Amino acid sequence: MLRRTTIGLALAGLAIAAPSAFANSHWNSQMKSATATASRSAGGCTITPHSRGVLGVSCSGGDEATLTYAFPLKKGITIKGTPWCDVKWMGYADVHNRCSVVSQTLRVTVTVADGYASLSTVNVGYYT
Fold first, then answer.
1. Domains and CATH numbers, the chain
2. What is the CA radius of gyration of the chain?
3. Residues 19-48: pLDDT tens digits?
4. CA 93 to each of CA 42, 57, 110: distance values in angstroms, whole numbers, following the listed order
5. What is the reported pLDDT for 21?
6. Cβ of 18: how many Cβ atoms within 10 Å?
């Protein structure tokens, strides 16, 4: 028990003494309406723009729609760590998203399959 406590205290001390990798970092975030796609691939699905930037996507069977959103980064900006991305949606489809950085652009790829999804916004966040 004493050994575990000593190790735990030593690790806690290291955590406090070690400078944070993001200590001098700045959090940035951006948001786009779901209709503001950089590219769309229906893949057999139906994609319908609605009011207020909402995008309806309906897929059946093995169909899958792919939507890409581009968030340009200012020249010289370097993202620290892993960027965060999210899509706000309602419905009963299978919806997934992933982030990647390509040529000073943070890209969010959203896939929709097996049902209906009403997408409203796409959000990203990152440290610089």
1. 24-127 (2.60.40)
2. 20
3. 455 568 899 999 999 999 999 999 999 999
4. 14, 9, 12
5. 58
6. 8
CB count in 10 Å sphere of residue 78: 10
- Look at the block and give the residue holding tokens 């968030």: 71
pTM: 0.81
Q: How many CB atoms lie within 10 A of CB 126?
A: 24
**Cα separation of 90 and 94, whole Å?**
11
Which two tokens mark 120? 């409203």
For 64-73, what is the mean pLDDT?
97
The residue among 25 and 119 whose pLDDT is bigger is 119
Name residue 59's beta-bridge partners. Answer: 115
DSSP letters for 3-46: HHHHHHHHHHHHHHHSPPTTTT--EEEEEEETT--SEEE-TT-E
Cα dist from 40 to 67, 70, 111, 121, 124, whole Å: 5, 12, 10, 15, 19
